[in-house]
Amino acid sequence: MSSSASTLSRITVLSGGVGGARFLQGLLHGLRTGAVPGGSADTEVTVVANTADDWWIHGLKVCPDLDTVMYTLGDGIDVERGWGRREETWSAKTELEAYGVEPTWFGLGDRDIATHLVRTQMLEAGYTLSQVTEALCRRWQPGVRLLPMSDDRVETHIAVADPDSPSGRKVIHFQEYWVRLHAEVPAEAVLVVGQDAATPAPGVLEAITDTDLVVLPPSNPVVSVGTILGVPGIRDAVRGTPAPVVGVSPIVGGTHVHGMARQMLTSVGVEVSAAGVGTHYGARSHGGVLDGWLVDEGDAAEVAALEEAGLRARAVPLMMSGPDATAAMAAAAVSLVAPQ
Ligand code: GDP
Ligand code: CA
């Protein structure tokens, strides 16, 4: 950490949607209440958000993870659903269905559509996704600097079995796998289209290099954090940053809490356990991206294997049941990699 040993002036978080946003809410709460060691209400938090869930639908550019973080921290989220706007109505969706316009399985709420209209118009006028995100955040004031991982088009696609196709499989957009198929069929492969040619958005590498702490929140290790790290340059920046890097396990008791981390980990051949994900990320001392890995108290038996793999590891309660519980997780993550 920087000069005055335990002061956290800046924290950078690499986030997906729901899991990352809830963690960030707890982190900010912990910074404001003094629960996070070395942090304060003045600590600057930068969020590098996954954009590989993004897609174009009905002529609109939709960025689910950026919006989930922005709405959650800006107090506009539908808390129960975990995505989209509070007090949402669905007239536009119903009207599109009445026209028989496909796909009908993707929910675009009326309030949410306004966000996508602003974004799409700005992109078409020549602004970058970074600039659009900054403009949208001027309304929402999320209390963090929110950066897309890249301004380039990067989209996760999933290969699934298809008996009607000569190859026996077909490749569908991540949204179709998640929203239409509910991740209920096996993912045979994860393909991140456009990733190799993408560059990190302005400020992303600096946010990882010039910071006091990098955090991998409990986001999906494959299709959220994995896609961020896969943008050329980002993984190397995390490996090389002088700041400590700590992660929080999204796998508790051998499965994900919400979402589809289990399906995604299985498809890339990673054991679905807290230790499996920790060693998949790997210790920086062994060529990976982490210094510390926090696991749930129920997974305490996995700490020894993680330490064996070169990681600092500790077991604490990892259920994000409310701001105080989540702030305590964030505090434990900070303490785990604090200089000893
Ligand atoms: P998405 O983009 O909406 O899929 O969100 P993320 O990738 O940020 O987060 C999904 C991950 O959050 C899943 O893998 C869940 O296991 C994890 N998650 C959700 N709630 C909790 C929780 O209360 N505790 C922990 N440890 N992980 C959680
Ligand atoms: Ca996501």
From TrEMBL:
For this entry, the protein name equals 2-phospho-L-lactate transferase
Superkingdom in the source lineage: Bacteria
Q: What is the source species?
A: Nocardioides oleivorans
Which keywords fit this entry according to its UniProt record? Magnesium, Transferase
Per UniProt, the enzyme's principal EC class comes to transferase
**UniProt entry tagged with the keyword Ribonucleoprotein:** no
GO molecular function annotations of the record? LPPG:FO 2-phospho-L-lactate transferase activity; magnesium ion binding
Q: What is its EC number?
A: 2.7.8.28
- Keyword Transferase listed: yes
